[in-house]
Amino acid sequence: MKITAIETIPVSLPVGKFEDGDHKVRGINAPARYPVGKNVTRPWDQDDKGNFLLSNVIVKIHTDEGITGIGEAACDTTEPVEVVRAMIDRHMAPRLVGQDPMDWQYLIDQVSWDADRGATRFSTSGIDLALHDLVAKALGVPVYTLLGGCRRTKVLASIEVPRNTPEKMAAHSYEYYQQGIRGIKAKIGSDPVQDAECIRAIREKLGDGISIRADANRGYTVKEAIVFCNLVEQYHVNLEILEQPVGTMDLEGTRQIKEATSIPVEVDESAFSLSQVHQIVKQDVADVINTKCAKAGGIRGVVLWAAVAEAADLPIVIGTEWGAGLKVAAKLHLGAAIKNADPVVEFTEMMIHELLLKEPIKLHEGYIDVPTGPGLGMELDDEKIEAFRTPGMDK
Q1: CA 31 to CA 329: how far, in whole Å?
Q2: Smallest Cα–Cα separation from 344: which of 324, 319, 325?
């Protein structure tokens, strides 16, 4: 079997809003005590209706035996859609066309490297997903078989709720609860006292049977993070994880917070490459490591990160990342196969915009079943792809 062509299709997906009109991904900070000057946050792309847009590049790897592997690459303001598509079309495709896809791990190595942060991470993830899908289809097995087998047949879905007031965050969490969600990750990192009240409000609204976690997105100082943890512990709300309380490179500060609280501390932005994961483990910085196909370079990257974490007896969380549908499938296979994967997997993408899948994702008491068909086990809808093709980017 030989790879004959690699096709890339950019798509843009409008993000929805809650029933009260608030955006599902853009949070509102607590009021600042003093003027803060110009906003340095990078602007989001928006459509003519004012909806935020999330971009992805669909990747199709065609072969001479008629088997096509399909994946997708996320995009953001650092690696925009134009860059991701160009990296695949101009750099990666020429190296892969004519190769045997069954050499898939070698081929992934040919188009990637363990850079701190570069224009290949997202692009590689798209190639990686498509190769996993292709090889598993060729063998007639689910992707989780390539990863060692199925340890779990379902995973609990967790959804992110953006920063806001305690009342708003509780209401937004309850809106997801009514749609069948039983796991909430609250976005915080604004004001530690108000943030602790937000967690308490969500717990009081949803009850004790719900998974509640929090992500500070590097928003705290060490002292602020400890204030938040102390308050949350006093409230007895059973916060399962505090994610990325301080800055990306502040590993010592993260370790201090970890030692000051009983709440498990997770790193996300600090874990941005395989070598950095090794440093986090080596320095005993965190209790949990957040992994994503996009930042790890695909399914294979997540598996490698998980192995390093497992060597230190640490769990990983398979985190939220923007996707058109196949990222959901990839995370289900990872959640099914990885020994030290947390049983709660983040699927925010499935609740904030339409997925381009032929069949909708179904929740069963908060859980999603792992697909068992060949490859990733989910199919994209070509009509939906065309409907959401990014304007101004020719075929």
Answers
A1: 39
A2: 319
Helical pair 299-311 and 121-139, crossing angle rounded to 10 deg: 100
Contact predicate 128/120, CB 8 Å: no
The Cα 92–Cα 95 span in angstroms is 5
Domains of the chain (ranges, CATH numbers): 3-140+383-387 (3.30.390.10), 146-382 (3.20.20.120)
How far is the C-alpha of 280 from the C-alpha of 300, rounded, in Å? Answer: 20
CA–CA separation, 332 vs 233, rounded Å? 32
Whether the per-residue pLDDT at 40 is higher than 80: the answer is: no
Planar angle of CA 315, 72, 369, nearest 5 degrees:
55
Are the beta carbons of 186 and 176 closer than 8 angstroms?
Answer: no
3-state SS track over the chain: CCEEEEEEEEEEEECCECCCCCECCCCCCCCCCCCCCCCCCCCCCECCCCCEEEEEEEEEEEECCCCCEEEEEECCCCCCHHHHHHHHHHHHHHHHCCCCHHHHHHHHHHCCCCCCCCCCHHHHHHHHHHHHHHHHHHHCCEHHHHCCCCCCCEEEEEEEECCCCHHHHHHHHHHHHHCCCCEEEEECCCCHHHHHHHHHHHHHHHCCCCEEEEECCCCCCHHHHHHHHHHHHHHCCCCCCEECCCCCCCHHHHHHHHHHCCCCEEECCCCCCHHHHHHHHHCCCCCEEEECHHHHCCHHHHHHHHHHHHHCCCCEEECCCCCCCHHHHHHHHHHHHCCCECCEEECCHHHHCCCCECCCCCCECCEEECCCCCECCCCECHHHHHHCECCCCCC
Which residues, 6 or more positions from 308, have their beta carbon under 8 angstroms from its beta carbon? 274, 277, 278, 281
| Local confidence band at 45 (pLDDT 50, 70, 90 cut-offs) | confident
Identify which of 81, 151, 156, 111 has the alpha carbon closest to the alpha carbon of residue 300. Answer: 111
pLDDT digits (tens, 9 = 90+) for 279-318: 999 999 999 999 999 999 999 999 999 999 999 999 999 9
The pTM assigned to this predicted structure is: 0.95
